[in-house]
Amino acid sequence: MPLDNVIWQALTTHQSHLAQGQGTARKFFKEVSILAALAEPSGDAWNCLASLLRSGESAGLFLTDPPPDIPHLRIISSIALLQMVRNNGEMPTTRRDRPAFVTLGDADVPEMLSLTSLTKPGPFGTRTREMGDYIGIRKIGSLVAMVGERLKIPGYTEISAVCTHPAHLGHGYATAMILELMGRIHRRGETPFLHVRPENTRAVGLYEHLGFRTRVELQYTIVTRQ
Q1: What pTM was estimated for this model as a whole?
Q2: CATH label, 84-214, candidates 3.30.1120.10, 3.80.30.20, 3.30.70.660, 3.40.630.30
Q3: What is the pLDDT along the chain (226 residues), one digit of tens a residue?
Q4: 15-43 CB burial, b ≥16 within 10 A, e <16
Q5: Within the chain, what is the greatest distance between any pair of CA atoms?
């Protein structure tokens, strides 16, 4: 299944130009993303990952089993994460009064970093925008909401960085932006998917309303080089 070991699939296919490493371990350039992956969870692969990281540098992996004790690596955290997929089908009806979207580029990165730092949708770096298309909503010139594409593999694109400034909640911005990206992904003949913490019941409910269904529960594990 393509979505098994999805970070590895991305690092070795559509996003290989953003990858570091060889052999059985890969990682994104640290300015792009903290995400990394192993070809398979073997001792050799974990050692390869350790060799890719500088002292104090961290990597985040999607795992199905707890990692073993690996020399030079320390587990910082490990949390449950749902992988949700929306099978291609009839798109939900979009609002006639949907807000105007802007395409976000390099000049918008400082505001994107500020918004993600405030809302904590997940790791976001100075070059994360290079992973895919990002759109946003501006009010009185300020970026108040955004969403984008992160992991890309043949036939699938991940929707990520869904965030709205706390002062602008309740206007349906997240729904409108997700629907916009879903439409773009569907028109490319691809399937949208995403990852979300199970305790974020508000987000899970929204994604289910939009047709996403849980495929598997993973462990998002962050390790660091000692």
Answers
A1: 0.93
A2: 3.40.630.30
A3: 889 999 999 999 999 999 999 889 999 999 999 999 999 988 899 999 999 999 999 999 999 987 778 888 999 999 999 999 998 666 666 666 778 999 999 999 999 999 999 999 989 999 999 999 999 999 999 999 999 999 999 999 999 999 999 999 999 999 999 999 999 999 999 999 999 999 999 999 999 999 999 999 999 999 999 8
A4: beebbebeebbbbbebebbbbbbbbebee
A5: 56
